[in-house]
Amino acid sequence: MPTKSAHLTIDDSASNQMDLRVLELARRGIQAVWFCRGDHLAARPAAGIHALHAGQILGNHSWDHPKFSTLTLDQARDQIDRTDALLDSIHRKAGVERKIKLFRFPYEDRIGSAEHHGALQEFLRSRGFVLPDIEGVEHQGFLQHVAENDVSLFWTYDTEDWTLPSPDSPDAGRKLASVLERMERDDPQAGCGLARTGREVVIMHDHDHTAGLWQVVLQGLLSRGLQFVPLV
Known about the structure:
The chain is α/β, with parallel strands linked by helices. The protein has eight helices and six strands.
């Protein structure tokens, strides 16, 4: 299968599986952006430090994963600032420079109204968050975000690993097969398939309960020709 470049992004860190997943990526020479929930990272700061020492990138994914369209601007700013202060502290403790400030909205729920959305984007820019220049993406949803000058980092392919149960669930085999089958199915309208042209920005999730199924999904992506390259 032909290879194509991709960036790996991982939401909802830090889980109790993060250290093992960082080691798996290090073994494969893959850098990912780990979008961290402040409450999860506060509970496991050592996992964030370990990730930084392994060359991973930590991003901001709010404090406790609310729907931003339901928040006041003051509440939204607090979600971002509290998490960002923690990320700064983790970088200082790790002795690693924070090279780039990246943000992703929980659930990609970013627009309450045009004014609310604009104010949030302006706030993110004022805090130094940027949307990295990613060349070669052809996914229309991603390009629409860029055209709208959104700072938040969207994706081109959702693995839907968030649908997976724990490995000991009776449903685990069927659910895993469905996640892997989506990678093969050529149905862009349904968000399925990796055969299209253009660079990919892939989203996975750092959830406690999925345990080793996470590594199976990662291998599925690699087996379908994705070559993960550093974002920064």
